[in-house]
Amino acid sequence: MKKVEAIIKPFKLDDVREALSEIGITGMTATEVKGFGRQKGHTELYRGAEYVVDFLPKVKLEVVVKEEDLERCIETISNAARTGKIGDGKIFVSSVERVLRIRTGETDADAI
User: 8: which residues sit within 8 A by CB, 6+ positions away?
Assistant: First the structure.
């Protein structure tokens, strides 16, 4: 099993969720986060004063999938989240040792 973490632009969340749902991936966690990469923030004007916004609003998606669904999941997230502009985000993949569904006691692939 693999855990896919994707940092995306907030307005792309619904597109990514719908695209993942279409390929049969329904369980996910979305968290509002702030961060920056090469984009390095931007300046804004507020009441005549200019200030730097270092951390930009993003959404972090977490999805655990079976290994055979991994490439399709990554491709789907990438296609749905892409705008072609700086700040589209990143996808991280890590291994998952064990999963347990608390309600039923199901484990690993049955619990996803």
Answer: 16, 58, 59, 61, 77, 81, 88, 89
In whole angstroms, what is the distance from residue 28 CA to residue 20 CA? 9
- AA identity, residue 21: S
Query: pLDDT truncated to tens, each residue of the chain (112 aa)?
Result: 999 999 999 999 999 999 999 999 989 999 999 887 776 666 666 677 766 767 788 999 999 999 999 999 999 999 999 999 888 999 999 999 999 999 999 998 888 8
- For 9-42, give the DSSP string: -GGGHHHHHHHHHHTT----EEEEEEE-STT--E
d(CA 76, CA 23): 8
